[in-house]
Amino acid sequence: MSLTDKLSMLMARPGGDNAQKDDVPWWMRYAGRGVGTVGGFIAIILGLLNCISIVLLDVGCLIAGIWQMLAGFIVIVCEAPCCCFFIDYVQTLSDKMETRPYWNKAACYVGLSVPPFFMCFISMSTWFGSGLIFATGIIYGMMALGKKGSRDDMAAMAAGGTTPPGAPLSASHDHNVTLMEDPDVWRPN
């Protein structure tokens, strides 16, 4: 048994199907989960440090710190529910997020990480804490894009030749044709 098989057995969810559902590389899955878990913990700690700025009467940084701690907790709940097993609804929320497509996770994490930047732009704890949550969203966004085409497929498309065998059917249309020129799309009455 290889090291990746052992790691995947350790990271497998109890009661979940262990079949690979897509062609995302194993290292990218672990990167998303790892950065999300570590980044969530760091965001909580740095959000708490950000809340100390109330001493300087900076209410924007206080709200940004609270938001950052909440975002870090949500990311930890979604990525590592074993860290919050004492809360009843955590496994349910984690299972719901696990069934969603990668682009939903990416949009959620990026959306959670952006508001603290607008509230407290000058704080390095905001940049680092929310930046790690943003990086998790970027990793899930790259996972949503999918696998890159083969070298032959990319060379054929760059040369302007025919559609490669692995391309979807919609790629066979000429992208320079407008709606009025394509007879398959627009037919007069």
From TrEMBL:
Name the Pfam families on file: Cg6151-P
Q: Is Protease there in the keyword field?
A: no
Its main localization is membrane
For this protein, the record's InterPro entries field holds: TVP18/Ca-channel_flower
Biological-process GO terms, alphabetical: endocytosis
In what way does this protein cross or attach to the membrane?
Multi-pass membrane protein
| GO cellular component: a single term | endosome
**MF annotations from Gene Ontology:** calcium channel activity
The source's superkingdom equals: Eukaryota
Q: Which family does it belong to?
A: Belongs to the calcium channel flower family.
Official protein name in the record: Calcium channel flower
